[in-house]
Input
Amino acid sequence: MPAGPIQFDEFSLDCDRFELLRSGRPIKLEKIPMELLILLASKDGNLVTRDEIIERLWGKDVFVDTEHGINTAIRKIRLALRDDPEKPRFVQTVTGKGYRFIAEKRNDAETDGPRVEPEPGRSHLAGHTTRIALATVAAIVIAGLVFASNLGGVRDKVFAKQRVAPIHSIAVLPLANLSGDPSQDYYADGMTDELTTALARNRSLRVVSRTSAMQFKGVSRPLHEIAQSLGVDGILEGSVNRSGNGVHINLQLIYAPTDTHVWAHSYDRNLDSAMSLPEELSQTIASAAKADSAPPKPPRTISPDAHEAYLRGRYLWFATDDIEGCRQYFEKAIQLQPDYAAAWSGLADTYAAKAVMEEATPPPLLEKIEQSARHALELDDSLPEAHNSLAAFYFFGKWDLKNADAESATAIQLNPSFAEGHYLRSYILMALQRPDEALAEVKRSSELDPLTRPWGVGYVLIRLHRLDDAIVELKMKAAVQPRNQGIRFNLSDAYWIKGMWAESTREAEAAFLYNDKKAARELRRAFDSGGRNGAASWWLRYAQSQKINGYVPPLGLALAYAQAQNKEQTLKYLEQCYAEHSSKLIFLQNNPIFDFLHSDQHYRALVTKLGLPPAWDDATTSASIAK
Output
């Protein structure tokens, strides 16, 4: 141990006082990262191997997830020192070996100056989401309870009995990719997705969707804050290290309200057997959470190459807008294994996304959606995603509410924690004019997936004609996420329908400011000079400028003319939507912007052709909106 503080850059590391200061201010650093920083700094620039770190910090004979623990500690050190791992000033990674402290130490007689206490209300650097029980492992692990399993080398960590309430809700945080190869992110994310899906089949557990949990990938926030943001009391986290044909996986379950470690496992598998892990783990984790476990699904033999192609397709689906890339990977998985149901379902989703995004839905595309979804169900009729894909085909593709309702209900029955299934079901029930059920479904989706569509509940409230409730909901969400365009545009719609033109323009302007300042300026000028009519004219010009592959969707034009209360042009473009099979025309009866048309015979004829039920408020439509 060096005598006196170690001085480097603006930092002072006092090994005796176990303290790190920056310009005289104390920097919060937990026990394990502090011990590792002291070890590195005391080695005078020499390499410190990972084995040496393990022996010094934990000892040889105590089992913890040292691999994950070292990486977590290094991340926390870099956060405290504001060190860039790509261009390090203080801690250098020696790939495959260990770490080296490379900062130049100050050898002068400089002092740290007076100790400065943190300013009131000023937050310290938050810890990383991972909470490995490194410092207290001896008290937590029941001594001697470490064994190897015949199923690929499983090591258990059993924690001392503590009073932990049953876990009712859980989030699977993104598994860390510890391979050292960023191109393997797809594999870690894919295992996260499959583990989430398997856990979601447990009916007594509410499992937060993968898309909301994935927003905490690489985020440094205290665990209890993440749990609070996601509305859960349980957190499952861990890491994946894929090397060659081997996969090493570490997992731990934490009761978030008390930051208590409930369960942990370490697995070593080859690629073949690793594919069955999510189903195995769903049983074990449900038991550890004191929840009822779902019946195990029959094992299916999937080739590793097909599984890898599928995981790459899902990675692109969630991480990018590359629908074409997704489709190619799903098709590759199917070519490698034609009976891969999940890949067929993924393929159906890519075709459906193309249909919805491009508005018009030509018959050949509809046929591809239906064939892919039906084939997935022929291979595995217990796959909720496949039932949801078929429900989307019926709803957006065929405007067939009866069959869409049936398939949607089946998807949710198979997976009660299927957030996307609940969201689609809210749309279907809305079109069926079952408002209370629609609202319950969108709220359930929001509970399961709170971060993906923060505007979702407000959107449905608008289409249920509950404008005041929608405004309250969306204003609350805007206060938390002021830059979210979906929230702002929906709030703008609600205000417009209520006849609050200034407020509507203000919200749309705020939405445009973050990615289209020119549009924000033009809309403001149009409203300031012409009021409601000026803004309505601008929205029409804006809709005419929005092209998808050179095509202007007629629904956008119909909405713009409806804003201007131009009945003739609105009906003209709604008829064009019908002729081109615009997928979103299914919402016709639910958009209050079209309420002024409800008594028109041409509009009613269009509703009849679509097979839509009467609007729930046809007897009391807001004639005042047209004034």
Remarks:
- The CA atoms of residues 229 and 450 lie 8 Å apart.
